[in-house]
Amino acid sequence: xxxxxxxxxxxxxxxxxxxxxxxxxxxxxxxxxxxxxxxxxxxxxxxxxxxxxxxxxxxxxxxxxxxxxxxxxxxxxxxxxxxxxxxxxxxxxxxxxxxxxxxxxxxxxxxxxxxxxxxxxxxxxxxxxxxxxxxxxxxxxxxxxxxxxxxxxxxxxxxxxxxxxxxxxxxxxxxxxxxxxxxxxxxxxxxxxxxxxxxxxxxxxxxxxxxxxxxxxxxxxx
Length: 222
Prior knowledge:
This protein is mostly helical. The protein has one domain: Glycolipid transfer protein, GLTP. The protein has helices at residues 2-11, 14-24, 41-58, 63-82, 91-100, 109-131, 138-149, 156-165, 172-179, 186-213. Helix 2 (14-24) crosses helix 10 (186-213), helix 4 packs across helix 6 and helix 6 packs antiparallel against helix 10. The longest helix is centred in the last third of the chain and has 28 residues, at 186-213. 34% of the residues are buried.
């Protein structure tokens, strides 16, 4: 049964799958009560896996970022497998590690959550640029998205690796064509990108509210 589900997911475009995930995802901001914060685990990680598939379409430029995302997903999955009580709410990890003083230490799950969120920020910034027809080529769009979202938090090694690989990105039309579903038109695909952006932007705003509540918003690479 699981194999059939995976086959169905792969038969749809990454954008369609991401829109579906976000359409049914329910997220609760902390507000004045941190205990009420909720980020459903499985939908969040599914969304991150979809970002990995999108990055594959961009090519070798995203190899370092892709590896980081994959490692952070696996780190969270390992914890969730060993502690079933955390399976329904990622914020419980932040809460537990903050209480124990481990959220900002070593390879914590809180750090993994922060960096996965930032990877989604990058994907959002890139898709926003592509959806508005800004006239930027793909290289410019990728670089701008990186500079806004990830570069301020990256160390010089990661930034240098990204800069070296930037010349390898495909052109914008080729990238969007790679994301298209079957015989979908270019205009229909662009409209789908806009729908995804409209869903992803408020979702990430809520996530950042939660990160601020746990003093993790400004965490940087070691």
